Amino acid sequence: MGVSELLLVGVVLLLGLCGVLVPGVPGSWLVWAAVLWWALKDPRPVAWGVLVGATAVLLLSQAVRGLLPPRRLRDAGATPRMAVYAGLGTLAGFVLLPVLGAIPGFLGGIYLSERLRLGRHGEARAALRTAMRAGGWSVLAELFACLLITAAWLGALTWG
Prior knowledge:
The protein is mainly α and 160 residues long. The protein has helices spanning 3-21, 27-41, 45-67, 80-96, 102-118, 121-159.
């Protein structure tokens, strides 16, 4: 697989990660489709292993999301700005404290967004709790799964 095709797969993965935060966009399916495309073009065993792992992670993520409350983030006052802060916080946390840092990064991103908007600690904390109850956990589960898959793809490219 050439460099240009790998870059396109990376772009689709990035679009999928962003799509998780946008309502109505099938972000996790874009991530899975990018890994499928890569595995079909690169027939090494590591590519197929990543594809099987990605499929298992996404199925587990869908099962977990089925147990969580449905997304009603708009009703709770979630804004696109909050989604950007949550996404950037998740990515920063995932990189700074590999894998597990995504969870406090997501929560910190929402908190920072609300703290800047509302100005007070107590109000920002209450808004964070409201956002997480309104479906934030569902978004976090899907985003975390997609980040794991993207990290596996990058690891397979680097060390595979």
